């Protein structure tokens, strides 16, 4: 959702880092669903896993959900009715993140099967209806994007366009979902978006001095719910630590020294995950660099166009189908 807000993209890095450092758990930031997909290790043999329903841990080892527990939940009240909560959306998105490994119809069937496995009536029918509404909403976003145009088509600080996009998005959610479901699924995000727009209004007000801007932003921050205030404090701390570790690397710090810095800041488990992630990134970048160099050599060779294309396809064959989708960002 947060791709509608170009001006707040910088915070997403810190937010992604924060949730990566935590053990796998239910979160309340839909913006980070894409981040989890970004970091996931895609693997090849996915078809059999779909047949197994991905409910078995061994089955998940064959997909991008490798090493994860099933996110989210379907909370049910004492009367047997479904309790609207963001954890339901997280459950949906956990399985929807496999789109690309499986066809849309397969993924939709997978979620419906998950609901049927987990719930009894009346919660089962309520969850199935909610899922159909949620998918209809997701489909509607494609048309909404066409109507509003690319977010890059207006100035970064064009507040009227930003507000228009967010208002349209809020309305679209409540067109397909009940007000209660929309609030449960997106209330946290919408509160944060309102805060960021208010902050941008203040930052870009030429009639305010720097001190006046700082005072108004501080007042705005103090009005945030406690959970959002905690998140902002933590992401700021993480940003500072990452900035420090990058500076250490530039100054020639060893991997052991960086690990010690991260351990002191986040604890040994989180430091180990950061080290593993950085190693995976380095390996991926090395593969990309090797591929691009080989591709350039092929393109500059004296071969025919057909031969060049065949040679490039052979180079691409070293990547899984999911990895090949990511190559476009580097070519």
Sum this structure up briefly.
This protein is an all-alpha fold.
Secondary-structure blueprint:
Blueprint (H helix, E strand, L loop, with lengths): L8 H13 L11 H7 L7 H5 L5 H4 L25 H11 L7 H15 L4 H26 L10 H18 L2 H25 L6 H13 L3 H25 L4 H12 L1 H32 L5 H12 L4 H7 L4
Helix pairs in contact: 1-11, 6-7, 7-8, 8-9, 9-10, 11-12, 12-13, 13-14
Structural class: mainly alpha
Overall mean confidence score, pLDDT: 75
Q: Secondary-structure element sequence?
A: HHHHHHHHHHHHHHH
Give unreliable regions as ranges: 1-51, 150-157
Major pleated sheet: none
Strand content: under 5%
Sum up the overall morphology in one term. Answer: globular
Would you count the extended β strands for me?
0
Number of helices: 15
Gyration radius, in Å: 23 Å
Q: Terminal Cα separation, in Å?
A: 26 Å
- Helix content range: 55-70%
Give structural notes:
The chain is mostly helical and 331 residues long. Among the domains are: 24-39 and 70-225, no CATH class; 270-327, no CATH class. It is 68% helix and 0% strand. It is built from 15 helices and no strands. It has helices spanning 9-21, 33-39, 47-51, 57-60, 86-96, 104-118, 123-148, 159-176, 179-203, 210-222, 226-250, 255-266, 268-299, 305-316, 321-327. The longest helix is centred in the last third of the chain and has 32 residues, at 268-299. It is globular.
């Amino acid at each position: 959702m947060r791709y509608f807000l170009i001006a707040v993209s910088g915070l997403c890095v810190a937010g992604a880092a924060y949730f990566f450092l935590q053990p796998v758990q239910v979160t309340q930031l839909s913006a980070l669903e894409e981040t989890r997909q970004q970091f996931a290790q895609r693997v090849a043999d996915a078809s059999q896993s779909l047949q197994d329903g991905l409910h078995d841990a061994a089955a998940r080892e064959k997909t991008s959900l490798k090493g994860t527990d099933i996110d989210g939940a379907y909370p049910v009240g004492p009367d047997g009715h479904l309790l609207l909560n963001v954890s339901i959306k997280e459950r949906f998105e956990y399985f929807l993140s496999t789109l690309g490994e499986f066809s849309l119809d397969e993924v939709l069937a997978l979620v419906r099967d998950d609901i049927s496995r987990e719930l009894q009536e009346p919660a089962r029918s309520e969850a199935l209806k909610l899922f159909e509404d949620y998918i209809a909403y997701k489909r509607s976003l494609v048309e909404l994007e066409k109507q509003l145009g690319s977010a890059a088509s207006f100035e970064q600080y064009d507040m009227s366009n930003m507000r228009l996009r967010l208002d349209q998005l809020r309305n679209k959610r409540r067109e397909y979902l009940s007000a209660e479901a929309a609030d449960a699924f997106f209330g946290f995000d919408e509160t944060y978006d309102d805060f960021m727009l208010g902050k941008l209004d203040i930052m870009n007000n030429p009639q305010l001095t720097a001190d006046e801007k700082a005072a108004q932003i501080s007042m705005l921050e103090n009005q945030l719910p406690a959970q959002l205030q905690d998140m902002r404090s933590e992401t700021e701390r993480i940003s500072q630590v990452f900035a420090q570790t990058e500076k250490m690397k530039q100054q020639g710090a060893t991997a052991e020294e960086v690990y010690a810095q991260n351990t002191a800041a986040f604890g040994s488990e989180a430091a180990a995950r950061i080290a593993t992630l950085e190693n995976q990134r380095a390996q991926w970048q090395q593969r990309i660099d090797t591929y691009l160099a080989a591709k350039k050599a092929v393109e500059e060779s004296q071969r025919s166009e057909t031969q060049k294309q065949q040679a490039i396809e052979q180079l691409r064959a070293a990547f899984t189908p999911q990895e090949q989708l990511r190559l476009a960002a580097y070519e």
